Amino acid sequence: MPPSLTDAAIRTAKPKEKPHKLSDGSGLFLLVTPSKNGGCSKWWRFKYRFEGKEKLLSFGTYPEISLLSAREKRDTARKQVAEGIDPSQERRAAKATESGSGTFEAVAREWHGKFSLGWAESHSTRLLRRLELYIFPWIGARPVEKIEAHELLSAIQRIEAKGNLETARRVLQVCGQVLRYAVQTQRAARNCAADLVGAIPTPAQKHMASITDPIKVGHLLRAIQEYPGSFVTRCALQLAPLFFLRPGELRKAEWSELNFDRAEWRIPIERMKRSQKEKDSRQGEVAHVVPLSRQALIILRDLYQLTGNGRYLFPGLRSKDRPMCDATLTNALRRMGYTGEEMTVHGFRHMASTLLHEHGVPSILIEKQLSHSDRNRIRAVYNYAEYLPERKIMMQTWADYLDELQGVAKETPFETAVR
After folding, report:
1. What CATH number does the domain containing 262 carry?
2. DSSP class of residue 310?
3. Crossing angle for the helix pair 149-160 and 165-184, nearest 10 degrees?
């Protein structure tokens, strides 16, 4: 879309009863706001989307910021978005640096930039976002060497007051790491977070809600079969108990990873729950094999007719170039009437583990199929296909057992089939 604004049009723009926009294209627009004296102010704004969310960035006022300068700022911001950088976050970081390298926010961002290189992207983003939400507004502008324990505790207690004990505990740990880094880089004399050990109660350990009673599992499977929503979502729900993968591993599945002839789904290391360091060192390698049962193949072949011409098995509703949203399956369970205390998407893993163990399946096979990390990192590189023949039998017998619970098959001699 070609630019539509000119300096003449901006100079002669008149105020209206309410603020109105003059668009220049590619997200840049001028917001003309009436003032009390009959005049108006003219603000440059840039609208963009980052990680699926619409955001707004201010470039200043006209004529202090000319049309040419505003376009340059817009082009710079668009380039940052294309490179995976949030312009708003980048600006906040720059302001923190300008305000003094000794503020808590400046030190925290420096620490994060230095140590987050080996982290998973989701962990890195979540950690920084927590600091931005819970800490920076209260002590971010404070000189790091002057922060006292009671100030930090006051910020943490705001999280605790909302009942988020686990988040409060984790944020306090991060603040302790930031302050320790400040001491190490000689910008603070001591780490006051050390005085807050035990200040936040340890939350009671919670497990992901899961249905493990066989009769109730049957009810759930029938509810999934009759799910009235999207066909793609129903397929994902049907496959979740058959595969018992982590939710992210399931919803980000790609057609290129499936081999119908071998009845296998081979998942690369990049998509598994591993450290970023291991992902970088083993990039492109297969980290996990999911044997495909007959039931899974039937569902997958049906699904292929609809989404097989794209990258993802379960594309998002808004864009086929992205996998379905992480809340899609959770929302589907809620729509079916299951609360968060009854069943979660992650709970399909616990369901499988519990029932398989109850049927006497060897733990090594279950743990291997759950893809729990092997503590021996050298062995872990080579064992993604370990016990694969036995696991294929287990997965087919498990699928047959689910059919039995759903009421579409006769009783399966589970123990005999696995052993």
Report:
1. 1.10.443.10
2. S
3. 150
Residues 55 and 150 in one domain: no
Side-chain-facing half-sphere of 66: CA atoms under 13 Å: 5
Query: Can you tell me the distance from the alpha carbon of 6 to that of 218, in angstroms, rounded to the nearest whole number?
Result: 66
Residue 95 pLDDT: 63
Helix, strand or coil for residue 349?
helix
In terms of residue numbers, what domain contains 142? Answer: 92-196
Residue 156, token pair as written in the block: 């943490």
What per-residue confidence (pLDDT) applies to 98? 55
Query: How would you class 176 by CB atoms within 10 Å of its CB: exposed for 0-12, middle for 13-18, buried for 19 or more?
Result: middle
**Token pair listed for 382:** 């080579």
Ramachandran quadrant class, 243 (left: phi over 0; alpha: psi -120 to 50; beta: rest): alpha
Q: 173-179 contacts: CB < 8 A, separation 24 or more?
A: 174/127, 174/130, 174/131, 175/131, 175/135, 177/111, 178/104, 178/107, 178/108, 178/111, 179/144, 179/147
- The dihedral through the CA atoms of 243, 246, 247, 252 has a sign that is negative
Name the H helices within 103-191.
Answer: 104-115, 121-134, 136-139, 149-160, 165-184
Residue 2 resides in a domain? no
Return the active site residues: 246, 273, 346, 349, 372, 382
Of 49, 84, 119, the residue that ends a domain is 84
The pLDDT value given to residue 40: 87
At residue 211, the pLDDT reads 92
Which pLDDT belongs to residue 85?
A: 83
Cα–chain-centroid distance for residue 411? Answer: 40
CATH code at position 44: 3.30.160.390
Name, in order, each residue with C-beta under 8 angstroms of 323's C-beta and a sequence gap of 6 or more: 251, 252, 253, 312, 314, 315, 316
Is the pTM of the predicted complex or chain greater than 0.70?
A: no
Amino acid 419: pLDDT? 47
**Is the peptide bond prior to 63 cis by the omega test (within 30 degrees of 0)?**
yes
d(CA 322, CA 312): 7
Mean pLDDT by 10 residues, the chain (419 residues): 77 88 90 84 91 87 91 92 82 60 89 83 86 93 92 93 88 94 91 90 71 94 94 96 91 94 90 69 79 96 95 89 90 92 92 92 91 53 73 95 84 52
pLDDT at 391: 93
Strand ranges inside 172-315, DSSP E: 258-259, 264-268, 286-291
d(Cα 134, Cα 156) in Å, to the nearest integer? 7
